[in-house]
């Protein structure tokens, strides 16, 4: 076992340029994938000869495959960053993502487009390394705020990505891929000159921990860290609940409220705007006022309440009332990440973050099937239950379960323990 090292709370103060780069990196990743959301199904439809049913099936395959590869690759990137440092892993991810979007822009067939999507899933697993970077360069007091910045990047990307992709896609279906490639490659060049390393050589693992650089090994790693296992369950459940919106919102809005593409776009922009407000403006004050534990419990409770309102709302305006309530749930991830990172040795941060991202990817494999399947069942003629908001009520129930788990396990530790033998 390697000797213990100091927690990141004792590290140098946050470096503004580095934190800004991490924000931009996450934003570019989200934007890059957001811009292709409006055009990827249509490009697939072209490749299958205009058959909508067949195109929908292939889009589903793309989504499940992407999540499955993230499930495998997130712990690998985390382990590599613990051994070689955060900077090279993040930069290679940016470079690989940019090159791959060029590949997809030139893809001559569905098979090659699928290959490009696979490579995108591999290179986009850098969120775990970005999270570890935040843990490296922020103090305990500022860590939740740092993770809130990551959430704000997701919000901005959620709004701007599909909007930009829709505009560019109207010009040419391939243009959004070129735009995404340009952003990723520019971000690589920017980081090459700006991004400092956050993990000094003396704080790195002595070897690549291949035993935990896989999904099963990463779960074993979490089991070896009992102080974070309960919080890891909260992260998984929260990630599972998060797929309610992308899985059924478009169909649900049309079925229940008669919302077309324009109305759906406005509501999604509202959702993204509220996410920015919470993550960029409220996370820091909430953690300072309530502490990380109570912020986590409050955020999860607001998410459950917001989803309940969305699932039961008979009118569209009542659905919108639930959006800002559910948006406060956005504080849960920064709070839980801050609690987890302060209880883990610095040299294990990459592996722990990789394991957590693997759990989120697993939720991305299971969640859409549960929500889409439950919605399809309740609106079918054979269903005895006429409750189109059932997927949202399922998500609300999951978040209430997360509240119960967090109540028991969300206890901050003043100092991070040394990495256990199982973790190294």
Helical content class? over 70%
> Which sheet architecture does the biggest sheet show?
none
- Count of runs of 4 or more consecutive helical residues: 16
Number of domains: 1
Question: Mean pLDDT, rounded to whole units?
Answer: 77
SS-derived structural category: mainly alpha
Beta-strand percentage?
under 5%
CATH fold-level label? Growth Hormone, Chain: A
Number of strand segments: 0
Low-confidence parts, pLDDT < 50 over ≥5 residues? 1-14, 415-424
Distance between the termini: 6 Å
Structure, described:
With 424 residues, the protein is an all-alpha fold. The protein has one domain (15-196, 210-409): Up-down Bundle (Growth Hormone, Chain: A), CATH 1.20.1250.20. It contains 16 helices and no strands. The protein has helices at residues 16-34, 40-47, 52-84, 86-106, 110-123, 127-137, 140-171, 175-194, 215-223, 226-242, 244-257, 261-312, 316-327, 332-341, 349-378, 390-409. 53% of the residues are buried. The model is unreliable at 1-14 and 415-424 (pLDDT under 50).
List the topology elements.
Elements: H1 16-34, H2 40-47, H3 52-84, H4 86-106, H5 110-123, H6 127-137, H7 140-171, H8 175-194, H9 215-223, H10 226-242, H11 244-257, H12 261-312, H13 316-327, H14 332-341, H15 349-378, H16 390-409
């Amino acid at each position: 076992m390697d000797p213990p090292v100091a927690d990141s709370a004792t590290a140098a103060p946050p470096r503004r340029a580095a934190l800004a780069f991490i924000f931009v990196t996450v934003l570019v990743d989200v934007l890059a994938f957001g811009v292709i959301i409006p055009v990827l199904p249509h490009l697939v439809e072209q490749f299958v000869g205009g058959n909508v049913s067949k195109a929908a099936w292939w889009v589903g395959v793309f989504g499940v495959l992407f999540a499955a590869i993230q499930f495998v690759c997130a712990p690998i990137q985390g382990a590599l960053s613990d051994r070689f440092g955060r900077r090279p892993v993040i930069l290679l991810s940016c470079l690989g993502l940019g090159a791959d979007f060029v590949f997809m822009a030139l893809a001559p067939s569905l098979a090659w487009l699928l290959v490009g999507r696979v490579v995108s899933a591999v290179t986009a697993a850098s969120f775990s390394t970005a999270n570890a970077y935040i843990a490296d360069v922020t103090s305990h007091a500022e860590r939740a705020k740092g993770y809130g910045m990551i959430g704000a990047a997701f919000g901005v990307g959620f709004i701007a990505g599909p909007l930009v992709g829709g505009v560019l896609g109207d010009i040419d279906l391939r243009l959004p891929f070129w735009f995404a490639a340009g952003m990723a490659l520019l971000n690589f060049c920017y980081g090459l000159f700006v991004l400092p390393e956050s993990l000094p050589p003396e704080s790195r693992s002595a070897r690549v921990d291949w035993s935990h650089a896989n999904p099963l090994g990463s779960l074993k790693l979490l089991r070896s860290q009992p102080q974070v296992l309960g919080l890891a369950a909260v992260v998984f459940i929260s990630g599972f609940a998060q797929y309610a919106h992308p899985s059924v919102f478009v169909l649900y809005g049309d079925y229940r409220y008669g919302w077309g593409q324009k109305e759906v776009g406005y509501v999604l922009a509202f959702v993204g705007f509220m996410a920015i407000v919470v993550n960029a403006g409220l996370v820091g004050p909430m953690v300072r006022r309530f502490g990380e534990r109570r912020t986590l419990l409050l955020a999860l409770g607001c998410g459950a309440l917001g989803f309940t309102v969305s699932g039961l709302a008979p009118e569209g305006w009542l659905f919108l009332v639930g959006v800002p309530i559910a948006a406060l749930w956005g504080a849960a991830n920064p709070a839980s990440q801050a609690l987890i990172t302060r209880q883990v040795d610095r040299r294990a941060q990459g592996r722990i973050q990789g394991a957590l991202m693997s759990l989120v990817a697993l939720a991305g494999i299971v969640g859409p099937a549960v929500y889409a399947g439950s919605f399809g069942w309740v609106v079918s003629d054979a269903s005895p239950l006429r409750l189109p908001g059932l997927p949202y009520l399922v998500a609300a129930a999951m978040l209430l379960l997360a509240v119960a788990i967090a109540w028991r396990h969300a206890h901050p530790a003043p100092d991070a323990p040394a990495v256990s033998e199982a973790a190294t």
